[in-house]
């Protein structure tokens, strides 16, 4: 039996693996092509109180403000307080953060400022922090004798014993053959649900697979209606999705409409550095007013050498697409970016299912509330992965769950077989994403949400019927998980009779007097 099974090899999963491997054996499942994870696409950096000009209370206050009244104050304080130690740990591993070479630098490494932050507190590795993080952590994990990396398996269902405790995962090999991996403790670090939408900020975003797998075991899901749209994704219909970091705005970039007019200062005193929900809605409204497909983000007024030095990745990518950002504005459009909701966990990453943990974007810790503040996500990955590891180590002597071969497991393994991705899966995924993008996007309405609920229920019924004709496959399992998670997300949005943070409904534009988290289980779908 495996001791600890980690599903997901981004920053959260790798951090936990390294933090627990000194005392427990770890098996970590990660995609064969690591570009499928969201972590490596993180450009901005990690928010933490590092400068003597900053303090814990200021970071907490900024996070609470961005979360629009829905943050869990204890989770915010826990995360922010443990941030500096997480950065120190990364530095010990050799993480190549960008140094600050100015003679009056308050901190050895360069700190930038992003939306929602009152001061410079975002430590980074140029404009490719996620890639540098993954490289650093993966190199350490690959040579650790207690960590086994598997890129040949995809988890499609969690295993449970007769007492409802998680005891590993049912997987498929690359050729479609079934394999069950038993484990004493299972950790989901499988990412968010941006892949439910047509336009995203990463090429292969997760579709909430881990969230739904946890729900199948009875785990509670929280705040699914709060899907963050990053305000500035490169508008490039002929190319792959590419994020334009908020750090550009932090260093002086301004948003302009197609007429070349700046519009954010008239809407919010923080201008382009207002929280992401405000900026994304403002861009969406301006695009609707002009009837355009994008707006402009202009940083060309800054010295060209500074732009090339601070944003080498963005500069090079845009140049490859025919845009010199030192001379011309960047066409940008909002795109699905980050799920603030997910598997409800405590401060140790534990879910409501025994022996099942969730960390990173698949979890909902209460840190982000109704809207995530820029660069708090990688911070959350690090802090909660380290906290979960400590909890796993403290409870290592306790008896774990023991997998049992059940009739259901046997039937699943018989049904699973070698199969190609059927075309009908791709077609139905496209339909799902169209419904979510049109009806459950940046601005919502009662009628749109009702239409989405009906369309998704009909689509799931169709898929359930058609799936009987097909073997279990990774694409099919992914579609089934995505459909049910999308339906739960719509349900959460319909139940929230207010506009708060990322959930803006034009039919109920005001906030309720009391901010309450939404909590759903898979059983709630059966009542619809």
Provide the fold topology.
Blueprint: E1 2-7, H1 11-20, E2 26-29, E3 46-47, H2 56-66, H3 73-93, E4 111-112, E5 122-123, H4 129-142, E6 147-150, E7 153-160, E8 166-173, E9 178-188, H5 209-216, E10 221-222, E11 227-234, H6 247-250, E12 254-256, H7 276-290, E13 295-298, H8 304-310, H9 312-320, E14 330-339, E15 342-344, E16 356-358, E17 363-364, H10 376-394, H11 407-415, H12 423-439, E18 443-444, H13 446-467, H14 474-495, E19 504-505, E20 519-520, H15 523-526
Parallel strand pairs: 1-2, 1-9, 2-6, 9-16, 15-17, 18-19
Antiparallel strand pairs: 3-5, 4-5, 7-8, 8-9, 10-15, 10-20, 11-14, 12-13, 13-14
Helix pairs in contact: 1-4, 1-10, 2-3, 3-10, 5-14, 12-13, 12-14, 13-14
GO molecular function, one term: L-aspartate oxidase activity
Main location: cytoplasm
InterPro entries: FAD-dep_OxRdtase_2_FAD-bd (IPR003953), FAD/NAD-bd_sf (IPR036188), Fum_R/Succ_DH_flav-like_C_sf (IPR037099), Fum_Rdtase/Succ_DH_flav-like_C (IPR015939), NadB (IPR005288), Succ_DH/fumarate_Rdtase_cat_sf (IPR027477)
């Amino acid at each position: 039996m495996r001791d600890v099974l980690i599903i997901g090899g981004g920053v959260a999963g790798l951090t936990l693996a390294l933090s627990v491997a000194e005392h427990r054996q770890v098996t970590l499942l990660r995609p064969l092509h690591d570009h499928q994870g969201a972590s490596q696409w993180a450009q901005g950096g990690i928010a933490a109180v590092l400068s003597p000009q900053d303090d814990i209370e200021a970071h907490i206050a900024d996070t609470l403000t961005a979360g629009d009244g829905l943050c869990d104050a204890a989770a915010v304080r826990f995360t922010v307080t443990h941030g500096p130690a997480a950065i120190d740990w990364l530095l010990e591993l050799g993480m190549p953060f960008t140094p600050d070479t100015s003679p009056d630098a308050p901190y050895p490494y360069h700190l930038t400022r992003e939306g929602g932050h009152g001061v410079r507190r975002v430590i980074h590795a140029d404009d490719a922090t996620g890639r540098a993080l993954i490289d650093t952590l993966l190199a350490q994990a690959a040579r650790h004798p207690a960590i086994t990396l598997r890129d040949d398996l995809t988890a499609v269902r969690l295993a449970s014993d007769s007492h409802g405790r998680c005891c590993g995962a049912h997987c498929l090999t690359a050729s479609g053959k079934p394999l069950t991996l038993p484990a004493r403790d299972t950790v989901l670090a499988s990412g968010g649900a941006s892949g439910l939408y047509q336009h995203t900020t990463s090429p292969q975003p997760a579709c909430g697979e881990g969230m739904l797998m946890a729900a199948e075991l009875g785990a509670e899901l929280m705040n699914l209606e709060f899907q963050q749209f990053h305000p500035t994704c490169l508008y490039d219909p002929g190319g792959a999705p590419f994020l334009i970091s908020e750090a550009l705005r932090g260093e002086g970039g301004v948003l302009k409409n197609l007429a070349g007019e700046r519009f954010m200062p008239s809407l919010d005193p923080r201008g382009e550095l207002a929280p992401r929900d405000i900026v994304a809605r403002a861009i969406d409204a301006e695009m609707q007013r002009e009837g355009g497909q994008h707006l402009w983000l202009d940083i060309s007024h800054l010295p060209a050498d500074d732009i090339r030095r601070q944003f080498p990745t963005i500069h090079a990518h845009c140049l490859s697409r025919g845009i010199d950002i030192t001379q011309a504005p960047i066409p940008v459009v909002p795109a699905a970016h980050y799920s603030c909701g997910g598997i409800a966990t405590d401060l140790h990453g534990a879910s409501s299912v025994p022996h099942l943990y969730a960390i990173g974007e698949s979890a909902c810790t209460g840190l982000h509330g109704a809207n995530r503040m820029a660069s708090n996500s990688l911070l959350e990955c690090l802090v909660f992965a380290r906290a979960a590891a400590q909890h796993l180590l403290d409870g290592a002597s306790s008896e774990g769950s023991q997998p049992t071969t059940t009739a259901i497991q046997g039937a699943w393994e018989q049904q699973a077989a070698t199969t190609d991705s059927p075309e009908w899966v791709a077609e139905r995924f496209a339909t799902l994403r169209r419904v979510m993008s049109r009806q459950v996007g940046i601005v919502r309405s009662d009628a749109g949400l009702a239409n989405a609920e009906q369309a998704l229920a009909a689509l799931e019924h169709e898929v359930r019927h058609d799936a009987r004709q097909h073997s279990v496959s990774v694409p099919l399992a992914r579609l089934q998980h995505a459909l049910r998670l999308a339906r739960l997300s719509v349900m959460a949005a319909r139940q929230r009779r207010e506009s708060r943070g990322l959930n803006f409904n034009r039919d109920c534009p005001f906030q309720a007097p009391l901010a309450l988290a939404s909590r759903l289980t898979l059983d709630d779908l059966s009542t619809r």
